[in-house]
Write a structure and sequence with these properties.
Order of helices and strands: HEEHEHEHEHHEEHEHEEHEHEHEEEE
Largest sheet: 9 strands, mixed
Strand content: 15-25%
Structural class: alpha/beta
Mean pLDDT: 93
């Protein structure tokens, strides 16, 4: 293989490592690393662990040591710029230099404006050759929420819904179990598991009493729950409190003894209850997203009713739509989002097709704002 072909080949392996961090590393990015010798032998590989644990580069160095390999003079393929700052773990660029790595090939630079580029600079200053670019598109896709938060202070907002071919998510009575089949529901659990947090509204809690956790597959962490409850109507015995995870509840009602009593009851269940009123008496959605970004939320997975969905759509706050369509017609029922919409077709917000895939009996559509 030529030099560029080898870089693409081993970066593909590093990306495969990064995919193993998909359900694990948030809020840290999903990063993989593969270390190779000059003759193309894989010496070690690894991926970023849970927050506070080892990063991909350190895992790959440990793997090489466990195999009895020296990495002096080797090349490290890593899907994101090695970090250069001291956090809960030490700088990865220093670990690579200390191990004697001669060359680093990275897919992308670190999007954090406070640290981006410093890892490469320290590697080059230590005499390590650095090349950037192979696998960039795939590495960015794996970390689309991390890039959004680092660059804009906001999470990537993904709205998930399941419905009939004619666009209804439930019958007029509210019955919706189950429009889509088991395979689509299982697939939706994977998307829920990869998110940092799941957002829903109090209407969904009161109507369905869902848990909104991940139970259909083994996962090393549960996504946080984010609940919009303007008047704090959530019952303290709601099923959302069953799963051990962080829970953020945002409300908008004016503070009063009654509201403070409801707040205390929910806090007693372990929730963090935040007052974030908007001009319309509801939770300020834009401020909500900024607050979630400050809380380290990269990907926000929305599973809500038509009212909250509609408010997010109306405010143009949805980045991606994850839609499952079943091959059945309901003729009438509840829609995806309750919003006023454009007054004429030319004003309709365009979406770009990202993917279309058959999932069991149903179809999964992913669309994004262009």
């Amino acid at each position: 293989m030529t030099h560029p072909q080898m870089d693409e080949f081993f970066m593909a392996q590093a990306l495969a490592q990064a995919e193993q961090a998909l359900l694990l590393s948030s809020p840290n990015p999903r990063v993989g690393c593969v270390i190779t010798s000059a003759d193309g032998q894989v010496l070690g590989q690894g991926f970023t662990q849970q927050a506070g644990g080892a990063h991909a580069e350190v895992m790959a160095l440990r793997d090489a040591a466990a195999r009895g390999h020296s990495v002096r003079g080797a090349t490290a393929y890593v899907t994101l710029e090695p970090c250069a700052h001291q956090g809960r773990t030490g700088p990865c660029c220093d670990a690579l230099v200390a191990a004697g790595i001669a060359r680093v090939v990275a897919s992308l630079g670190d999007p954090n404006p406070l640290v981006g580029g410093q890892g490469f600079a320290r590697l080059r200053a230590a005499g390590v050759a650095v090349d950037v670019g192979p696998g960039a598109e795939a590495a960015h896709a794996l970390n689309i929420g991390f890039f959004r938060r680092m660059e804009h202070g906001l999470p990537w907002v993904r709205m998930k819904a399941a419905g009939s071919l004619d666009g209804f998510t439930a019958l007029p009575s509210g019955e919706s179990q189950w429009i889509t089949a088991a395979a689509a529901r299982a697939d939706g659990q994977i998307w829920r598991a990869r998110a940092c947090a799941v957002l829903t509204g109090v209407g969904t809690v009161l109507a369905d009493n869902p848990r909104l956790d991940v139970r259909a597959l083994a996962t090393p962490r549960q996504p946080q729950l984010v609940l919009l409850d303007s008047a704090l109507r959530t019952p303290p015995d709601a099923a959302i409190f069953i799963a051990p995870r962080a829970c953020l509840i945002y409300f908008a009602a004016p503070l009063s003894p009654e509201i403070e009593a409801r707040r205390a009851a929910l806090q007693a269940r372990g929730a963090r209850v935040i007052h974030l009123p908007g001009a319309d008496g509801r939770v300020d959605l834009r401020a909500l997203l900024r607050n979630l970004g400050a809380h380290g939320i990269n990907e926000l997975h929305v599973e809500a009713g038509a009212r909250l969905n509609g408010a997010l759509v109306q405010a143009n706050l949805v980045d991606e739509y994850l839609l499952y369509l079943a091959p059945r017609l309901l003729g009438a029922g509840r829609g995806l989002a309750d919003w006023s919409g454009p007054s004429h077709l030319a004003a309709a917000a365009p979406l770009a097709w990202h993917s279309m895939e058959r999932v069991g009996e149903d179809v999964r559509l992913v669309l994004r704002k262009p």
